[in-house]
Amino acid sequence: MNILIIDGQGGGLGKQLVESIKNNRKDCIITAVGTNSTATAAMLKAGADHAVTGENPVVAGCRKADVIIGPIGIVIADSLFGEITPKMALAVGQSNAKKVLVPMNHCDNIVVGVEDLSLGKLVQNVIEELARIDMGCE
Fold it and tell me: Which among 31, 43, 73, 76 could disulfide-bond with 50, CB atoms 3.0 to 4.6 Å apart, if both were Cys?
């Protein structure tokens, strides 16, 4: 399974996602795309198979991914303090990949009806959701 993880700012969520997926789903290939070099470096250090930075890698990566994972802001233009460009949000939204969006209530994007969970619990929920996605990565 080809997993695309997109994160910005300091890359803390992306780092935890990479580490957890690598520990639980060893056959998966993880491409990490940071919206800035700090986020990319954090995910690379966490063990991503490939790591790149910027708008075009998000657009290109969305074409090849089986699953896209990131904060919910990756589908909202100008979110993450402006790090998500309209092209990035459109590429994620139009991708045929399954999207696992983490409900982070930050940057003026609030998801109502969602429990306020710790980052660790949110990452655990992502791992559980990946287990439900039957893509041949057992």
Answer: 31
Q: Report yes or no: 20 and 126 within 8 Å, Cβ to Cβ.
A: yes
- Chain-centroid distance of CA 96 in Å reads 15
Model pTM score: 0.89
88-122 core/surface letters (b: 16 or more CB in 10 A; e: else): bbebbeebebbbbbbbbeebeeeeeeeeeeeeeeb
- The DSSP code for 36 is S
> Is the CB of residue 47 less than 8 Å from the CB of residue 82?
no
Residues 6+ apart with CB under 8 A from 115: none
Print pLDDT tens along the chain (138 aa).
Answer: 999 999 999 999 999 999 999 999 888 999 999 999 999 999 999 999 999 999 999 999 999 999 999 999 999 999 988 999 999 999 999 999 999 999 876 667 777 777 777 888 888 888 888 888 865 444
